[in-house]
Amino acid sequence: MKVLFLKEMDRSAKDILVKNGIQVIVSHSRSEADYVREIQRDQVDGIFCRTEEVTPAMMGASARLKVIAKQGVGLDNIDVPYATNNGIQVVYAPGGNANSVAEHTIFLMLACARRFNYVDGIFRAGNAEVRYTLHDTFELKGMTLGLLGCGRIGQLVAQKAARGFGMNVIGYDPYLKQDALDAAITLKKRKEEVLRESDFISLHMPSTPQTRGTVGAADFALMKPTASFINAARGDVVVEKDLILALQSGRILGAGVDVYAHEPIGPDHALLKMPQVIATPHTAATTEQSVKKCCSMAAQGIVEVLTGQKISFPANHPKMVS
Ligand SMILES: NC(=O)C1=CN([C@@H]2O[C@H](COP(=O)(O)OP(=O)(O)OC[C@H]3O[C@@H](n4cnc5c(N)ncnc54)[C@H](OP(=O)(O)O)[C@@H]3O)[C@@H](O)[C@H]2O)C=CC1
Ligand SMILES: O=C(O)C(=O)CO
């Protein structure tokens, strides 16, 4: 049995697979055509990905393909309907990176509240007296955080924000009920209520055909002009040009952004040009703990599909789609 890693993965993934008699091939391809050639040549049983696209052409290139594994949570880079229709299982790592992303979200909020880019830039440029001219910085305590999407990550953010920082947390999630949620969150029936009442809006919903492009100018228009927008979920859920305009026009105060409509972005991207934007290059889940956990969970999923053996532990269990 052979599994193709679309990029190099953490050692933990390879160790689990090799221990279970599965050969690992690490790809050096960067284009769909090259991946297809490799998959065709090696007739692999599995594909292991991070955020690389896994397309029907790639899945169709090996008659032996039984499993796609994702080191992470968002499955928007995998054509799941194609996999399902062709009997290919998709395994992933729900919750595996939730704490890292929740901590990163808090970091983005704090950095916005303290105008970190501005202060850091001016300090490095030689002005250590910026405290005398600094304005518009504030504590998180007492502020209202509005979550759009209250799943695993949203609920962890809520716990940290409410219990760690004394924030009020409200949320919108059309698929969850109040009694299924962490007590830190007060669920609102309408997204508009959350947008109007919050000092921070933080996005934690997946990118799906239903959510793509659903946060735009009308939503930014409802936010307080003193509010900041945080996105460590997916860039294409937001109409990025509307976010840029809302920031450039001062319609909203700032933003903390980890994900973009088209990744990777270059140094000339408008979001990187604004001091009121704290930007990271999709690193919210990039911690040692999260990478190891997600790699192990996804690798366990591959072993279960390819060998039929159950090796998982309840708290660290991969989820199968299709
Ligand atoms: N920046 C990064 O590195 C990372 C980003 N992510 C992103 O974060 C997303 C959330 O992750 P996680 O919390 O673990 O996932 P979960 O599935 O646990 O939570 C997502 C929640 O959003 C809900 N939801 C779906 N559509 C909407 C909507 N229109 N409005 C409000 N809520 C909605 C979902 O409902 P339902 O389940 O019923 O669809 C679910 O309750 C991932 O899908 C991924 O894209 C995740 C990890 C790392
Ligand atoms: O888990 C995910 O969805 C990620 O974006 C990891 O980088």
UniProtKB/TrEMBL annotation:
Its EC number is 1.1.1.81. Residues 3-312 form the D-isomer specific 2-hydroxyacid dehydrogenase catalytic domain. It holds the Pfam family 2-Hacid_dh. The keyword Oxidoreductase applies. It comes from the Bacteria. It is an enzyme of class 1 (oxidoreductase). The keyword Oxidoreductase applies. Belongs to the D-isomer specific 2-hydroxyacid dehydrogenase family. This is Hydroxyacid dehydrogenase. It comes from Caproicibacter fermentans.
